[in-house]
Amino acid sequence: MQFKSVNSAFDRIKTPCLVVGLFQKARTDATFAALDALTDGWLAKQIKRGDIDGSKGQTLYLYDPPGLNAERLLLIGCGDAKSFDERAYIEVNRGAARALNSGGAKQAVSTLPALELKQRDAAWKASQTVLATEYALYSFDEFKSEPANNKSALKRLDLWQPEALPKGTLERASATAHGVAFARDLANRPGNICNPSYLAKQAKALKKRFDSIEVEVLDEADIEKLGMGAFMAVSRGSEQPGKLIVMHYRGGDKNAKPVALVGKGITFDTGGISLKPGAQMDEMKFDMGGAASVFGTLAACAEFELPLNVVGVVAAAENMPDGRASRPGDIVKTLSGQTVEILNTDAEGRLVLCDALTYVERFEPRAVVDMATLTGACIIALGHEVSAVLGNHPPLVEALKQAGQESFDRIWELPLLDEYNELLKSNFADMANIGGRAAGTITAASFLSRFAGKFHWAHLDIAGTAWVSGDKKGATGRPVPLLVEYLARCAAESA
Ligand code: BES
Ligand code: MN
Ligand code: ZN
Hints:
The chain is of the alpha/beta class. The chain has helices spanning 30-38, 42-48, 86-102, 122-137, 169-188, 196-209, 220-226, 229-235, 289-304, 349-360, 376-382, 394-407, 440-449, 480-494, and strands at 2-6, 18-23, 59-63, 72-79, 107-110, 156-160, 213-218, 243-250, 259-269, 309-319, 330-333, 339-342, 367-372, 387-391, 411-413, 431-432, 457-461, 467-468, 474-475. The protein contains 14 helices and 19 strands. Strand 11 and strand 12 (339-342) form a beta hairpin. The protein is elongated. The two termini are 31 Å apart.
């Protein structure tokens, strides 16, 4: 999809389709009023016929509007003007994209970015229009014999708004949207295809695509030799060899310390010997959503050439029950030297991540952020709207929260208090890998914090946000938007 910013007078816009937002009842919106005036009241008259009243998400095509140079108008209901907020803005943009895509116009001009939205500027609205459009047009039909027809009929969307956008706004939004789609693709691919070796191949493909990306893949022999006993405790139980994938994006000064992103890359989580129940187990193919967000974010950085160094580390393994799999009660030694009693083999994410965290010490990172579909408890606590954040450095947590707010890929902090550490006590090793039913998301983070003592670190639990269940089942690409925003802020800070 191509996006461009335009601001010529409405009657000079020559387009197959002009997208216009329509509020319910009192139509005080300036764009609507200006368009209606140009049509000499024709527009208001069409609406009076009653086929659309402006309820959020309604759409209506109108043809050959007099006084305008557009072949058609796409009206999209925006709901009540008083409650028009960010969420409504995004929803309306997604709805418009879907309606455009199922219509006949290959190009359109959207005036939605000109809608007034409290607290949000032109750059925000334009970026969100790009993201929402790409999000809505995304489809995953790699494995369908008959791909859905009319796939991406829309090829180009011009964004109309009166103000000029800061340089690079659309480029960054578009790169972010591509990163989101990349992450969604990876996470949507099933476990029999997207296994650790497949992820390693994806890393090598990224390196081919971008000169700014270098890749190093550690195989099980390397991982074993290094002393990553926790990682191996998970990986050993699968026929598919685990991989530690290290990707360097070098966009900053040669000697500038990198931000490290660490992703949980469990390409399928059966639970291991502590086997999961069968219902919805298929969704455990998304258990590499954290890893997918590392890929998507690095690709976005490379695409818009962010001036920053980022190292992405993906701990890729499959959690299977097998003759060689870990048993409950097994004790392993982590790369850090600390020992762990594996009381539940289904708490595998923290086992691969803890060794990956120790591994990134060698890059002397300025900050480390890990992303993981780590706990079912996170879904109980926060549902599917916001991810959890916990960390050992309040300014880092704050920076991530702000990035989440700005990108509308929101997070909420849970308390990483020392008291919770008590819950990880083991009679036989330095710690257990589970803390019992209470505060599951926090005890998982407490566990990780023991491997993050040497740097500023934050953890994002994306179990509830990385995918949606039900009839729209699929990956969301979160938290790529948050991460790109955060990294862009890091780059601006060091500029
Ligand atoms: N990948 C799961 C967490 C998960 C569950 C994500 C459901 C999304 C939906 C993780 O590996 C896991 O199994 N966690 C256990 C931890 C428990 C054994 C302490 C959980 O949440 O039940
Ligand atoms: Mn598990
Ligand atoms: Zn898992």
